[in-house]
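re: ur question from earlier - yeah i can do the single chain one, its not a big deal. heres the input i used so u can compare w yours
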Amino acid sequence: MTDVLDLDLKAVVAEQPDPVLFATVSGAHLYGFPSRDSDVDLRGVHLLPAAELVGLREPDETRSRMWFHDGVEMDLVTHDLRKFVRLMLRRNGYVLEQLLSPLVVHTTDAHRELAALAPGVLTSHHAHHYRGFATTQWRLFEKTGELKPLLYTFRVLLTGIHLMRSGQVQADLPTLVEQTAQAPAYLPDLIAAKAEREHGAADIDHARVSGDVERLHTLLDEAQGASALPDAPSAYDALHAFVVRVRLEGFRGAPEG
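and the output i got, formated as tokens:
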């Protein structure tokens, strides 16, 4: 299986039309269950010139592209800094996982500063994000019978439970299995099966798995109710100041790989 950080992904970042504050790997590689034929999901933040945001034309706040690079399917999505930070403030666990991903392709001082502000947007209401995501993926699993959405269902439920209990964002499913006593014991076997094929069918006891998913939903509800996380973000003012400064002055420090 290809190590995504062995690919020449820095060249992909260098091709972008505007400065990139960070680019990380998300998707199945971040979640700990890539397949031999998994694509590479690159996510990040670009910085539009101030003139792009104050003129009459609609700014290109989100850019997306899919193509093959060194024989691997690539999926690149970047948001302008202002849009990304607004998503952070909307209890969006998905963008926080991208920001905090340990699979870093490109970083800057501004990336590290933004990551340091991330705890100030975490709230107990992030449980709604993971609950809704799990419900969507479970419906997809029941429609297709594929292993991929089933693993996504378990991953987001366990991420949500872990976040509510610890206040930390952890997206790697094998780590979550190790750290969560209530995780189903068969998950490592499902992860191993997923490694062989991206769109394979799930060979499972449906009634048992359905019961486990329902149980994890209950645990997420309980963890949210007992969570020490606040009801509202505390970092709004700091994030506003950060966005204004970076927009006007540019991000500090030379880019790093």
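The chain has two domains: 4-122+233-249, 126-226. not sure if urs matches, ping me
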